[in-house]
């Protein structure tokens, strides 16, 4: 997967329950072998190869705890539990990311359809897709794979 050029990036890091700070962080670039040593086979398949976990199987689908969902590959802060909602689709869904600085979007034309893929800006991990059928006010549904995420309780951020 191609992404932003290597070098420092600006991302938002959550400091407490209500706000975040913009920080400069390095781009994370690793070989497939390094990613395979770090990730489980399912995490590698989804996050590094653009796969999708089966619906209703992800460990964060029914998670109701207060906290933050970070990238399983690099720890980039991605989604807050405050924006999580039950979409009925079988995957964890959010109305918005922590910040648009922390993700990037690409056009995905795999499987004979056009969708908007969501990736981690820091390491280019595949996270899932965003759709325009979410709840008001922005009508966005960020449909994410649990395998691409790691949950951190709010007090542990």
UniProtKB/TrEMBL annotation:
Gene3D superfamilies reported for this sequence: Peptide methionine sulfoxide reductase
Cofactor dependence: Zn(2+)
Keywords: Metal-binding, Oxidoreductase, Zinc
GO cellular component terms attached to this protein's record: cytoplasm
Active site per database record: 143 (nucleophile)
Superkingdom of source: Archaea
UniProt-listed Enzyme Commission number(s): 1.8.4.12
Claim: Oxidoreductase is one of the keywords in the record: yes
Binding site for Zn(2+): 71, 74, 120, 123
Free-text comment on the cofactor: Binds 1 zinc ion per subunit. The zinc ion is important for the structural integrity of the protein.
MF-aspect GO terms: peptide-methionine (R)-S-oxide reductase activity; zinc ion binding
Family: Belongs to the MsrB Met sulfoxide reductase family.
Protein name: Peptide methionine sulfoxide reductase MsrB
Biological classification of the source: Archaea, Methanobacteriati, Methanobacteriota, Stenosarchaea group, Methanomicrobia
Gene: msrB
